[in-house]
Amino acid sequence: MNDSSKLPPNPLPEVSRRGFLGSLTASLALLGTEGCRRATEKVVPYQSVPEQVIPGQAMHFATVYARRGDAVGLVVESHEGRPTKIEGNPLHPSSLGAVDAITQASVLDLYDPERTPSPLRAGAKSTWDAFAAELDARLSKHATDLGATLRVLATPTNSPTVQRLRAAFGRRFPAARVHTYAPVDAANVHAGSTLALGRAMQPLLAFDQAKVILSLDSDFLQTEPGNVRAHRSFSVGRAVTSPQSSMSRLYVVEPGWSTTGLAADHRLPLPAGRVPAYAAALAAELARLGLPLGAVGDAAATVKATGAFEPRWIQAVAKDLLRGGKSSVLVVGTRQPAIVHALACAVNRALGSEGPVVSYVDAFDPSEAKAADLASLVSAIGAGKVETLLLLGGNPVYDAPADLHVQETLSKVQLTAHLAGFVDETSAGCVWHLPMTHELEAWGDQRALDGTVALQQPLIAPLFGGKSELEIWASLAGEKDARPYDLVRATSRAPLLLESGLTSSGDGKDGKIDCTDALGVHVQYPVLGFEHDWKKALRDGVLAAAKVGAPVLDPGAALALRAPDIAAELAKTELAAPPTRERLEVAFTVDAKMLDGRHANNTWLQELADPITKITWDNAGLVSPKTASELGIETGDVIKLSRGDRSVTIAAYVLPGTADGTVILPLGWGRTQAGRIGNRRGFDVFPLRTTDAMGFAGGVSATRTGERYEFARTQQSDSMEGRPLVREATLEEYRQKPHFAELEVAPRRSLPLWTDVDYSKGHQWGMTIDLNACTGCSACVVACQAENNIPVVGKEEVAKGRDMQWLRIDRYFEGEAEEPRALVQPMACVQCEEAPCENVCPVAALEHSAEGLSEITYNRCIGTRYCANNCPYKVRRFNFLNWHNDGVWNETGGLPETLQMQQNPNVTVRFRGVIEKCSYCVQRIQSHRLATKREGRDLRDGDIVTACQQTCPADAIVFGDLNDLGSQVSKLAMGDRRYGLLQELGIKPRTTFLAKIQNPNPEMA
Amino acid sequence: MQFFSRRANLFPLVLAVGGISLCVFAVAMVWYYFGPQFTQVGYSPKQPIVYSHRVHARNLGLDCRYCHANVEVSSVASVPPMQTCMNCHSVVAASSLKLAPLRDAWESGARVEWTRVNKLPDYVYFDHSVHLGAGVGCVECHGRIDEMDQVEQMKPLSMGWCLECHRDVRANQGASRFLRPVSEVTNMGWKRTSSEPLVLPRPLNPAENCSACHR
Description:
The complex is a heterodimer.
Chain A: H1 17-34, E1 42-43, E2 59-67, E3 70-79, E4 82-88, H2 101-110, E5 120-121, E6 124-125, H3 128-145, E7 150-154, H4 160-172, E8 177-180, H5 187-197, E9 201-205, E10 212-216, H6 227-238, E11 249-254, H7 259-262, E12 266-269, H8 275-288, H9 295-302, H10 311-324, E13 328-332, H11 338-351, E14 358-362, H12 371-382, E15 388-392, H13 396-399, H14 406-410, E16 415-420, H15 425-428, E17 432-435, E18 444-447, E19 452-456, H16 469-476, H17 484-499, E20 502-504, E21 512-517, E22 522-526, H18 527-540, E23 542-547, H19 555-558, H20 563-572, E24 584-589, H21 603-607, E25 615-616, E26 621-623, H22 625-631, E27 637-643, E28 646-654, E29 662-666, E30 696-708, E31 712-713, E32 728-730, H23 731-736, E33 765-770, H24 779-787, H25 795-799, E34 808-814, E35 821-827, H26 836-839, E36 846-848, E37 854-856, H27 866-870, E38 877-878, H28 883-886, H29 897-900, E39 915-916, H30 922-935, H31 947-951, E40 957-961, H32 968-973, E41 978-979, E42 991-994, E43 996-998
Parallel strand pairs in A: 7-8, 7-15, 10-11, 10-13, 11-12, 15-16, 16-17, 24-29, 26-28, 32-43, 33-42
Antiparallel strand pairs in A: 2-3, 3-4, 5-6, 5-17, 9-14, 18-19, 19-23, 20-21, 21-22, 24-30, 25-31, 27-28, 27-30, 33-40, 34-35, 36-37, 38-39, 41-42
Chain B: H1 11-33, H2 36-39, H3 53-59, H4 64-67, H5 82-89, H6 100-108, E1 114-115, H7 128-134, H8 138-142, H9 159-172
């Protein structure tokens, strides 16, 4: 199928020859008159300058972004009131200065021109006052029935203030109920810990302390809660600084490739439904080898599973886990059923890794997000028990289990109101649509996975006049007139006082707060002191000492393991048989870009290549080569997947390394009401997802529909074709030969076209990229896009190879087709000292600076593209069209005005016909150089941080001065693992790579 | 049979000489008349509020930085907010007719759209603060603003003109004719009195590479 309706429209308008000549003549004539008079440019000063604003200088504010049960602290850059760029907050434990791709891209959601500008009632424009009046009338009616017919459907919250207001709402309407639902939740994790430990808890892992890690279907580096935090500690545990270093070993058992799978030393593709059987078999083997698992081990040994596992994946892995002892850990993905989580809990306890590696923290919202909770709401509506339903966030019509028929159910409620950023699938089915604020527009507070509370402060007044979830809760709780600022401040009062060792005991008066200190003595704390504490907390972004539910650091002593319960549950668990050609398994996967579909209208994420498949603007049903040949399908065939009377169609993509018999279905695509960008991109797989199969489902049949579908990928070949692009060795080989990465080929001496340049003085900028740390998560690609005003081109143009991202991540497969290994390599301009591109520029638009930067001057470029042809790395990008104007938005008058607000004022917005490429963030180099000149000092190592380096959760990228022998980059660039990609060409690249080190288990060979 | 007279032998010579002079003339004309020295210098648009730098900066002796307050810390000198005007004009000349547009805008909250005079292209990233810190006076680029009733562009602001100063300072350091003590940068009438080079706290290293200004 070559369905052009799925492609974005051709940005070039159809023009006749006469029309073309006509406009050519007209523009020539206009050009003549244009030159006669200088264009006037207006300057509009402030009436009075807002406090602290200095025009021309960026400001930075700390805030926080909630994400799947975790909260990531942010520092957001703002130019004259416009938030432009998101960075991580180094003080926040879930960020430590880094963020992931989705968080980077969320700044674009703020400016999305398709956000709704006013409340809508039955699709017609209305006002907040009208809604407030209707809600008040409803609530006073509900006051008589205590809220028995009043329901709220919310998304799980991390916010202490929202929880406080929810409790107040519960007191006001004792009979009302709050349901929570999210399409991807932690229900299995909580059920598993309830089974094993008696409490709904979330494990918190210190991967830096682990030596042997076994991931059972857990993508802890990318899509699981707490991914940035896990990424950072994982990369610490994998860091190799010298041949004496040790590193952790990662085993991954998963149905389809994840970012975590990419980083694995050993990876077993296994259908998701077979993972419980694998976990039981492994536990039995561990018990046989002497691990004190007690009743759990006995139960595991008696479990009958059809189909065997490769012996090495049981025996060698079990032995390795035992050798690691206290440093060995099992991590389980949220998709896996509770019993696997409980088993992992028992194994971790027996291994002794609870404490050193695993701690537990109480679930913030234990009732959180169960499909069953939504099901109970649906049945209540069916029974006519609901008259008023408020939906706060979420998009259940699109993402609820298909067997609940939410869309049909909503129409049975008299009054429905949906708070959402866009008129989405759910809003379309509700009476009221209420525009919701973006995270950067609202006050709030968010609790991170480890209990740390961070304050969310707005950087901009609501652009589209929305309200936050917190404000709606306030009006439901009877605090309609309270300002969100005051509500958050009131919640933070007790924890802030606690930081000073005080407990509030009253409101106090005369500028004093009544408190008691640790010894119970009455203290009057000055309000001014509290004001100071509050401002510091706002500036830092975190309430330093405040934790809502601190982690249980020594679970072994604090929480008894309920081994008999686990054993009993294990004994009655039915283990799935291996999938067959007729009875396939489908595994629903949280998408690395769309998450659950909420980011569908984000152009950066749409255009970001999937970390594994490198597909842009689409998802695909991923199948292994063996399964594909059994089914007689190949990449691009549209298949129909049927399970009972439910079915979806999706284009197949054959991906080596997928478990045989499994079709991987990424969630979050195929939206119908996401907006102009996100509508009908990819394939919606939610219709196959039901309450009894939220993670994966068996018994699925696949048939070809006969249609074909084209994917737009950023990479055309999966193989390195035998060239040493990504160089790697095992830890053993590295220890024996530390300089393995340097090829024994002398660089070709290029002809002396000119005298050698002396680079021994001044700053000489360089970069190292550690392939051992890089996991291909793609956060850097979006960070670069945000920093450098890189346009988006759309699916059709990506398919033509016209993608514009300066930084790409190449992904190669190595080894056998049945058991491939994947390698990733970030690739941007390497700033060659003998740059081949510069030699061929006919107009001197490309010059080399004395500090070793390969510079491009856009206004000189005439677009011959000679440089791109002569670049051996293919990192130069050409503006075939004026993408900002004629790109995916394709509006007359250029890029929508709100999106222009995102752009970095320190980087030129490039026009049609010029070449561009990575500049080492020269605007950052320049601004720090000027700042140090103002301060009268020299640049120090670490002053200048490139956008990609700043956001990298694995610290893989290091930038700095190669002439400064003390700098981190010069130490790494002279280290043993360094190599210059294609340096044999004699072009002296300034970016060098550090070779990858694998840590395989010799017994797995 | 001769079609051409003998004098026609001169024709190629005249053609060559004439052609070359015409080309030289054309190049010279374009060189001058298409250059910023001709097209930009002298630009002096009418502004929405009659504001005289002569009155404020020279007669009253206000320092440039009273209004252009961020010029030492930011890339832009910034047109002052109306608040700065009203600091004085709520009491000084509070009923002047000339100030009516200012008062109206201040009271109504309307925008006042000034016309930019000294303008660089969008692809040029210029920073005021480092130039001031290096001892480049306002007058070097803006001329005698303190003698203008209506601001006028005095310098071509072309790349060659920028580089002239950058190269001179790199070569001559403290002896460069473009530099003055940092304390005198806003002193419009400052004249160098001694022939001694300035003592610089650190060697100046003005950029000559493209990405210093274009990025």
